[in-house]
Amino acid sequence: MAGAQADTSVWKISQNKDYFYLAGTIHVLNKDDYPLPSEFEQAYNDADTLVFETDLEAGNQAEHQAKFMAAMTYQDSRTLASELTPNTYKQLEAFLSSRNIPIAHFTKYQPWGVSLMLTIMEYRRLGMISEFGVDNYFSNKAKTDNKPIASLESLDEQLGFLQSLAAIDPNTNIQYTLQDIDNMPQWILAMKQAWRSGKVEDFSDMKPVQDMKKDFPQVYNTIIVNRNHNWMPELIGYTKNKDVEFVLVGAMHLNGQDGLLSQLKDYGFQVEQI
Question: In this structure, is residue 4 part of a structural domain?
Fold first, then answer.
């Protein structure tokens, strides 16, 4: 299956006769991005169990959403205005005004929470939503087909990783976010092209990734590298049972020396792009 025609972000990971599938996903997509490459469906049909980064169903429940909101907001006397410089606050206010959003809506948000919400809102403005994400697509398909679903980490663990964004200087965080939003259409196009063609190593050279690795290495390590290492024991176990798993993780977890594909090769697994 590997070779000149291999052009999707789906890999077959095998050792002896046991194997599982590992696929890179994009968590938000447009409706026009469907149908997905047929190799995704091929892996799904062959799999006994689907494995996502975290429990998508539980993530939609009110209890978790309330916990997530509490983590993003100040629970003391601090406000967004008190934590940002006047200049950064004005830049943020001007951007929100261009989107017809009063900055007062974010009064109690921590800057990292504002950055996350702005990114989500901008994706939505461009038509990219989680409902069309690869993960949600296969989660809904598995529920319809009564196919078992598992996850690599808990929701609380994932929330802890997101909270690591608080380690970024608040003003730098906001300014980088506003800059990234300006370039988001180009970044999305490059990201989709790399993902659909299976060229996940291209993610390593993309500016948002380079910026995070250079300017915020602690955050990059927490969100990407550490999680990859945490997932490896689970992935290795998938070649020691009779089931076939279809593991779907964000495409950025696959590339680079610390990526899952490189680590699996180092452990001696056969890694075959399909």
Answer: no
